Amino acid sequence: MMNYPFLVLFPLSLLMLWLAARIGTSLRKWRPLADDEREDFGFVQAATLTLLGLIIGFSFSMSISRYDQRKNYEEAEANAIGTEYFRAALLPANTVEVRALLRKYLDLRIFFYRTRSASELRRINTDTDQLQAEMWSAVQVPAMAQPTPVIALVVSGMNDVLNSQGYTQAAWWNRIPTSAWGLMITIAILCNVLVGYGGRSAIPKGRVIYILPLFVSISFLMIADIDSPRGGLIRVAPQNLVSLSQSLAR
Asked: Whole-model pTM above 0.85?
């Protein structure tokens, strides 16, 4: 559900919260608040809405930090690949082979950031694993044959290339936990029930109480969209990797 915020999360959350507000109005008709209860109810309602606002704010901050992390790792990948491409000139024999593998690897990393297809992603991950093994073998053989500090520098650069991909993958898996979403949605439902129950008129004029379900659903949509690496509209573009690819093609 969180992978498709516009198609699933937004309409589903809007429907649930709208029904919660309707339930609140139905409860008010069945058992209206007495005048001496309204003040205490107002304190509970305000505290619950404040808690919901804090949780939404913290969740939004979590999604933003994860988005920034994915951007930083994309930049780190481009720097690692570019540095290793030039260090490959230090190899005694197979510079051309290593650079060809790095250019192919760079194209795969760009495809990784751009694809939305699950089947295409599996193919990219398989090709990436195979290509990483080939790149490591290409620098391992001369390192074993001629273990000099210069060759060690090339091996260290290739290690950075492989590690940067692992950090990127971990960042794409690191998302807001499902339990946090469950808590946030549960509190939002209870808040809408309280807002519907706490109204003063039997039939709310202008359906004002239904504004809260809309605003909360939009907040959920924004958080899920930023937190979804592939399903949302706000995604990390591989601009540094593309720029590196263009510079190596000259």
From this structure: no
